[in-house]
Amino acid sequence: MSSVLDLVREDLRAFSGYASARTQALEGEVWLNANEAPWPNPGDADGQCRRYPAPQPPALQARLAALYGVDTSRLLIGRGSDEAIDLLVRALCVPGRDAVLATPPVFGMYAVSARLQGAPFVEVPLHDTVDGFALDVAAVRESALARSARLVFLCSPSNPTGGLVPLADVAALATALDGRALVVVDEAYVEFADAPSATTRLDAHVNLVVLRTLSKAHGLAAARIGVAIGDPALIAVLRCCQAPYPVPTPCAELALAGLADAALAQTRTRVAQTIAERDALAAALAVTPGVRRVYPSAGNFLLVRFVDASRAFAALLAAGIVVRDQRAAPGLDDALRITVGTPAQNARVIEALQALEIAA
């Protein structure tokens, strides 16, 4: 097993980053080291935002580490999973040399981050099978090695297809690419899946990173709290590449409140309700005229193919329902992605699509 630091850009392996006024844990009564205003803003009566926040708020860091079952040294808090994706690409890929690999149709930020870094972007499409979209493990391995991929992104459950990547496949890729590439498993939707997290494989694979977020199951999308979980040496490098104050104090406090025991219990109940609604919506869509196929999903959404996706999208919009148009994605020119809503919202989706067929 090689050192994960061998995968980091050579010029960043000893990079110390910016040492902010909150980098060191100093004690004192009068804080005059960060050029902060001595009085709070009139709109911030309690002064919550007058001072810069801790770069990695200790209480939130501890709570997230407990939630995901890892040591705090393995965890980096950032502005959603998007920041973690960007940091990984910037820290590992030399522009024009080190490639980023992803498996379309998939979340678009992997390609965006690669483009911004000037990293070659390699695509290994998922296979559309009778059981849903599936990963071609051999093709990913061969392409990653042949194209000098430094990062391999696996979205599981995948957005927008809803499919899972079996942990055996994750482990096989991490083993095959040890010393050559980092395997990143984006688990933004894993709370909705009946499957263990890839964090259970971290001890066996130094070149494995897992992304988690509070945006989906926890209902805190606007708080922008996501984490990268991986080898402590890599996490330390990413922290040095991160902006000085990535977690605003109000967001950290909101996240802590949302991770209290009572809140977590309610979140688990709502996740179960979402899964039940997902399955019910899938069954209803499957027998709706004009629907070609509903893919099995381990997320809080459904990928649906239509006889006429343009008319279906327009009909839903006319009914006040906004869904995600997937027709520009590779292989999805007849598809829409529908987030699972409340029972009443899901009923409106079915009603709008049935009315479209009646009027046809």
Helix and strand content put the structural class at alpha/beta
The total domain count is 2
What is the alpha-carbon Rg in Å?
A: 22 Å
Second rung of CATH, namely the architecture of the largest domain:
3-Layer(aba) Sandwich
Largest sheet report: 7 strands, mixed
Uncertain residue segments: none
- According to CATH, what is the class of the largest domain? Alpha Beta
CATH topology name of the largest domain = Aspartate Aminotransferase, domain 2
Total helical elements: 10
Pattern of helices and strands: HEHEHEEEHEHEEEHHHEEHEEH
Strand order of the largest sheet: 1-9-8-7-6-2-3
Mean pLDDT: 96
Task: Describe the structure in your own words.
By secondary structure, this protein is of the alpha/beta class. It has two domains: 4-259, Aspartate Aminotransferase, domain 2 (3-Layer(aba) Sandwich); 263-359, Alpha-Beta Complex (Aspartate Aminotransferase, domain 1). Helix content is 35%, strand content 16%. The protein is built from ten helices and 13 strands. The chain has helices spanning 58-68, 80-92, 109-117, 137-146, 167-176, 232-241, 249-258, 261-286, 309-318, 343-359, and strands at 75-79, 99-102, 121-123, 127-129, 132-134, 149-155, 182-186, 208-213, 225-229, 291-294, 301-306, 324-325, 335-339. The strands form three sheets. Strands 1-9-8-7-6-2-3 form a seven-stranded mixed beta sheet, with helices on both faces. The protein has a four-stranded antiparallel beta sheet with strand order 10-11-13-12. Helix 8 runs parallel beside helix 10 (343-359) and helix 9 (309-318) packs across helix 10. The longest helix is centred in the last third of the chain and has 26 residues, at 261-286. The radius of gyration is 22 Å and the shape is globular. The model has no long low-confidence stretch (mean pLDDT 96).
